[in-house]
């Protein structure tokens, strides 16, 4: 009977995600025309630069203290493990399915990158308010749950840029070399096709919200052109200074991409929370500048419904997408919804055994849920839309099941 009660509790937040996502998909249909692609891009720009950093910064500022840092230190490690294990599972899917060259980066990205923001920001607060929740006082649960979810979104964004981003870039570059080697074209044809090659990979408009308007042309293209590469190669490596080598490394890794607005919001939230003088000025009913914190919280509240509607709208692309190898879809679903959550349980059990994670049921639940969220990467056109459609359609079943299991484990 207890399991049944946990199942009902776990199904409520998942139904919320499903309803809002379905609404976004309906509004994006051509015959409805309320939420077309241009509207989604403009709304995503506002979410990326305004809503996301406000949400992350305000929630972290409310809860982060020196004491809470002791509890949160394992979360970046946990998310990194989820990314690495997901990458390994993606590689296994590639070895089994033998996909086309241009799909390999897509499979790796979808297997490695999880939606650590929107899903958690809806599921955790809703679970806190449910009557059968095992997480104690609803208000305390809500406050800390939002902080855990916001930090999860920020860390996931950093890893997405620094880890998955470069995997995709390398894959995209090798794909171009494959095209140039096997399908040589004239110089004019190369130049005319270059924008399509460079713009064929883009992130999903999701919680991480990594789309930067006006800077799409070279995001997933290695920074050196062919002529630049020949010029660099002409200079002996021994003659290159340390500064020059560092510049080359920065350009290849594109460290500028790490400075996303959500990352900035994370830094601001930590500074406010950890510096007592600033915290007393901004946080609390008696703080003289509390209106700034209240305004940031108000803006942040708009992020969750906006992001979920955008995801729903983008899933419509999957209905129009071309068919693709079914084994690839099945492989990604098994990797993300079966193997990865099971391995996440083993990771948490090991961390608890060695004293790396404290016995806070809510915190442990968030760490477990990070292994069960749907993909957050959209790195193509029709093929990726089909993958996103199926993975998010099945996410309602998977998240309900694993949320029930996770709550039973930590309760």
Describe the structure.
With 411 residues, the protein is mainly alpha-helical. The protein has a single domain (2-214, 259-410), classed as Na+/H+ antiporter like fold, CATH 1.20.1530. Helix content is 73%, strand content 0%. It has helices at 2-28, 37-63, 66-72, 74-97, 104-112, 118-129, 138-182, 187-198, 226-234, 242-253, 261-274, 276-282, 290-301, 303-320, 326-353, 361-369, 382-410. Helix 2 crosses helix 7 (138-182) and helix 5 (104-112) runs parallel beside helix 15. The longest helix is centred in the middle third of the chain and has 45 residues, at 138-182. The radius of gyration is 22 Å and the shape is globular. Residues 178-234 have low confidence and may be disordered.
Order of helices and strands: HHHHHHHHHHHHHHHHH
Helix fraction bin: over 70%
* Oligomeric form: single chain
Largest sheet: number of strands, sense, barrel closure? none
- Gyration radius from CA atoms, angstroms: 22 Å
Task: Using the coordinates above, name the CATH class.
Answer: Mainly Alpha
Mean of pLDDT: 78
Strand content: under 5%
Taking the alpha carbons of the first and last residues, their distance comes to 14 Å
Unreliable stretches (pLDDT < 50, length at least 5) are 178-234
* Topology, number of strands: 0
**CATH fold-level label:** Na+/H+ antiporter like fold
From the structure above, extract its key features.
single chain; 411 residues; Na+/H+ antiporter like fold; 73% helix
């Amino acid at each position: 009977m207890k399991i049944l009660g946990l199942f009902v509790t776990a199904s409520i937040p998942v139904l919320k995600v499903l309803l809002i996502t379905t609404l976004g998909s309906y509004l994006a249909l051509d015959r409805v025309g309320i939420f077309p692609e241009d509207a989604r891009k403009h709304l995503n720009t506002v979410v990326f630069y305004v809503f996301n950093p406000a949400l992350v910064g305000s929630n972290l500022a409310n809860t982060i203290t020196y004491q809470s840092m002791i509890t949160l230190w394992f979360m970046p490690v946990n998310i990194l493990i989820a990314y690495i294990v997901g990458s390994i599972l993606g590689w296994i899917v590639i070895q089994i399915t033998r996909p086309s060259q241009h799909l390999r980066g897509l499979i790796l990205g979808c297997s490695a990158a999880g939606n650590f923001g929107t899903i958690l920001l809806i599921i955790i607060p809703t679970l806190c308010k449910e009557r059968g929740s095992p997480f104690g006082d609803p208000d305390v649960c809500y406050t800390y749950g939002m902080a855990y979810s916001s930090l999860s979104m920020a860390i996931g964004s950093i890893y997405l840029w620094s880890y998955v981003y470069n995997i995709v870039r390398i894959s995209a570059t090798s794909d171009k070399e494959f095209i140039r080697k096997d399908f040589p074209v004239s110089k004019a044809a190369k130049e005319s096709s270059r924008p399509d090659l460079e713009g064929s990979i883009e992130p999903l408009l999701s919680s991480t919200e990594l789309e930067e308007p006006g800077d799409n042309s070279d995001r997933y293209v290695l920074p050196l052109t062919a002529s630049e590469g020949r010029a660099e190669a002409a200079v002996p490596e021994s003659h290159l200074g340390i500064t020059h080598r560092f510049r080359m490394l920065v350009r290849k890794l594109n460290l500028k991409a790490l400075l996303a607005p959500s990352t900035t919001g994370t830094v601001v939230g930590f500074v406010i929370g950890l510096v007592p003088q600033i915290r007393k000025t901004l946080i609390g009913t008696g703080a003289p500048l509390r209106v700034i914190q209240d305004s940031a919280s108000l803006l942040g509240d708009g992020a969750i419904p906006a992001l979920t509607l955008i995801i729903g709208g983008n899933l419509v692309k999957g209905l129009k997408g071309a068919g693709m190898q079914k084994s690839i879809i099945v492989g990604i679903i098994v990797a993300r919804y079966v193997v990865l959550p099971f391995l996440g349980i083993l990771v948490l059990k090991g961390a608890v055994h060695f004293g790396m994670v404290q016995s806070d049921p809510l915190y442990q639940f968030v760490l477990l849920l990070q292994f069960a969220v749907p993909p957050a990467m959209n790195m193509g056109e029709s093929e990726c839309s089909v993958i996103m459609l199926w993975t998010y359609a099945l996410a309602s079943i998977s998240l309900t099941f694993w949320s029930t299991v996770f709550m039973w484990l930590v309760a």
